[in-house]
Each structure stands twice: as structure tokens, then as C-alpha cells.
């Protein structure tokens, strides 16, 4: 199995990045390929999950080991395939997902594309107490103490930008910048997003 690829980011598409190493270009499907926009032409280490089907062999790529580990765990949930697991990682952080599972936050889980109440319950059933991340307990304490997470606000802002007519490609291009804002209000993300999109 291919555990990771250390190569030059040669190209970015809507679904994947092309990593070139030793004269070979590997197509690696990522949750949000535009995260790597700043790395085009530079070397980057991508942690990969080699998914083998009867009709295809596909490489999925992640920025760190935690993302890769969570992707593999989500694939173990009945009814969730690679596309669904990628959608989760494209729209939230590992930490926020773990908190949602441990606190049985169905509302958060059903915010992901293709995840209804039945699938959300299945995720909780299959994953609660089984996610091997050291920081989950600390994050759960923070959530219980009322420290707001930024993910819901960011999700709302992205939906608002889509409603204003901006394409998913345009929004994905600025999403890495928006995630650094660390705001708990959608308005802040919307104002920042519009400023970036109008440049």
C-alpha cells in the first residue's frame, strides 16, 4: 500500500492534485484540493489512502495523519463510501467531527452532504468511543463549557456566498483563508469572503 507521496504539486483540479515524483504524476483525490494552491510548484508530503475496487485503484490524499485516520474510520460506517467520507473532511476539522460523534450531535452530522438522520445515528453507533485521537476529551470539555466552534458559522457563510451566485470552485479557492479567521459569527466570514472574491 502507498502510505504517502512526497512530490511536487504540479496541478490542481476540482477534485484532485497531481503530485509529480520521479517523472510520474500521481492523481490524488483530496477533500479540498485548493488547500494546496500555495504549494503549486513546490514539494509537498501527502498522506495517502490506497482504495482498491474491482474496477479501479484510487489514491485519496490528506494533509496529515489524523485526517487520513479519520477517513479510514468513516469508511467503516455502514452506508458511507469514499465520496461521503471526503465530504465530511472537506467541510469540518477532525477535532470538530470527534466532538460531534462523542456528544451525539445529530444536527452537526446531518449538515454534511448526503448524511440524513439515519446515517448520522449509524455514524454515532459505529464511531463513538472508537476514534483514536488524543485531543478529543479536551475539545469535548471546551464544547461543554460553551466555547463556540467556528465550523457552523463558516458553513452558514459558505451557503450564503453560494446563494449570492458564487461557484463552489470560487468558494473552495478562498476557503483555506476563511478557516484562519476563527470567528463564531457567519457575518464575519461573509464579509471576509466577499472581500476576497472581489479582488
From TrEMBL:
One of its GO terms (cellular component) is Holliday junction resolvase complex. InterPro entries: DNA_helicase_Holl-junc_RuvA_I, Hlx-hairpin-Hlx_DNA-bd_motif, NA-bd_OB-fold, RuvA, RuvA_2-like, RuvA_C, RuvA_C_sf. Keywords: ATP-binding, Cytoplasm, DNA damage, DNA recombination, DNA repair, DNA-binding, Helicase, Hydrolase, Nucleotide-binding. Pfam families: HHH_5, RuvA_C, RuvA_N. GO terms for biological process: DNA recombination; DNA repair. Residues 150-199 are annotated as: Domain III. Homotetramer. Forms an RuvA(8)-RuvB(12)-Holliday junction (HJ) complex. HJ DNA is sandwiched between 2 RuvA tetramers; dsDNA enters through RuvA and exits via RuvB. An RuvB hexamer assembles on each DNA strand where it exits the tetramer. Each RuvB hexamer is contacted by two RuvA subunits (via domain III) on 2 adjacent RuvB subunits; this complex drives branch migration. In the full resolvosome a probable DNA-RuvA(4)-RuvB(12)-RuvC(2) complex forms which resolves the HJ. Belongs to the RuvA family. The RuvA-RuvB-RuvC complex processes Holliday junction (HJ) DNA during genetic recombination and DNA repair, while the RuvA-RuvB complex plays an important role in the rescue of blocked DNA replication forks via replication fork reversal (RFR). RuvA specifically binds to HJ cruciform DNA, conferring on it an open structure. The RuvB hexamer acts as an ATP-dependent pump, pulling dsDNA into and through the RuvAB complex. HJ branch migration allows RuvC to scan DNA until it finds its consensus sequence, where it cleaves and resolves the cruciform DNA. This is Holliday junction branch migration complex subunit RuvA.
Amino acid at each position: 500500500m502507498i502510505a504517502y507521496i512526497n512530490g511536487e504539486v504540479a496541478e490542481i483540479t476540482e477534485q484532485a492534485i497531481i503530485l509529480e515524483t520521479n517523472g510520474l504524476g500521481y492523481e490524488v483525490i483530496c477533500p479540498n484540493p485548493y488547500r494546496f494552491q500555495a504549494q503549486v510548484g513546490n514539494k509537498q508530503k501527502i498522506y495517502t489512502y490506497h482504495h482498491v475496487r474491482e474496477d479501479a485503484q484510487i489514491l485519496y490524499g490528506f494533509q496529515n495523519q489524523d485526517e487520513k485516520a479519520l477517513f479510514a474510520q468513516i469508511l467503516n460506517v455502514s452506508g458511507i463510501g469514499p465520496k461521503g467520507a471526503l465530504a465530511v473532511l472537506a467541510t469540518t476539522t477532525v477535532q470538530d467531527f470527534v466532538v460531534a460523534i462523542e456528544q451525539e450531535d445529530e444536527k452537526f452530522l446531518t449538515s454534511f452532504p448526503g448524511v440524513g438522520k439515519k446515517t448520522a445515528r449509524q455514524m454515532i453507533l459505529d464511531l463513538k468511543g472508537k476514534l483514536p485521537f488524543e485531543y478529543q476529551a479536551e475539545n469535548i470539555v471546551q464544547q461543554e463549557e460553551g466555547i463556540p466552534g467556528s465550523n457552523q458559522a463558516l458553513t452558514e457563510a459558505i451557503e450564503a456566498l453560494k446563494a449570492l451566485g458564487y461557484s463552489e470552485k470560487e468558494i473552495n479557492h478562498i476557503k483555506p483563508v476563511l478557516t484562519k479567521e476563527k470567528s463564531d459569527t457567519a457575518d464575519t466570514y461573509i464579509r471576509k469572503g466577499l472581500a476576497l472574491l472581489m479582488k
